UniProtKB/TrEMBL annotation:
NodD regulates the expression of the nodABCFE genes which encode other nodulation proteins. NodD is also a negative regulator of its own expression. Binds flavonoids as inducers. This is LysR family transcriptional regulator. Belongs to the LysR transcriptional regulatory family. InterPro entries: LysR-type_TF_proteobact-type, LysR_HTH_N, LysR_subst-bd, WH-like_DNA-bd_sf, WH_DNA-bd_sf. Keywords: DNA-binding, Transcription, Transcription regulation.
Amino acid sequence: MDRSNVTLERMRSFVRVAERGSLSAVARELGLGQSTVTRHIRELEQAVGVPLLTRTTRSVRMTEEGRRFYADCMQILRLVEQAGDEARNTRGAPAGTVRVSCTAAFGVLHVSRFIFAFQDRYPDVAVDLSLTDERIDLVREGVDVALRLGPLTDSSMKLKRLGQSRRVLVAAPDYLASRGRPTRPQDLAGHEGVRMSNVAGSDVLVLHGRRGGRHVVPLAGRLRVDHGLAAREALAAGRGIAPTHLWLVGDLLAAGRLALVLPDYSPPAIPLNMLIVPERSGIARVRLLVDFLAKEIARLPGIEKPPPGRK
């Protein structure tokens, strides 16, 4: 094996191609030409003496040798990054990039300003914030930390429970004045609902009474949206009634642009969690941002502590 050709740059190209399964996607991500990424892989394979990837017209996959080499590369790259972290920490200035994924509306309204404050405190840390409501593969997309609402299915990530996101039923005062204010859950059947097209079961509304009892009522309506900010605007414009997160509409409620509907009943709260790629959790800048975001998010109105026994 020609060790001089086993460089960190070539290893990084190989690792990302192995994770993303696309030479062109990795070229765009790394800011390189596709021919350069291809050359990195070819020279690395020549250096180690075995094929690492199997290429077809539709996909790129690791060979058995590639899987073993990938694990070794990950360990080496992680050690190199941690060594750099420790060296920078001697002068008390964490640096580098942290990649964060967050549900779009929560990111726009709250997480973005938390990140601004974090960067004011740590000016050498760059943050790449991706806003999407899709459940992405963190490793494949090169993300370090993801903020997610709802149940989780990815057990391979490190989990930090941030709390429960309280939801409320709201509508604009003008809408309620023209259509009438519901006084019991069954009254909702005759109202316009603003529904989320990307949320399963949004045509049915579940409400829990303050004094107990569970009510399930249909939620119909002519408007469906796939973005929390669009739902916020629709509600403020008097397009109907909807269950929504308090952090999404708290300012509109305070300003009187929205009003609570059936305040003695509430939709179930939604879990809010942070997922961290285990291999990245020990990096100082990632750890600092995780702790900073967790502290700031816990202060938001409507974010309640996790149930007892959970952290």
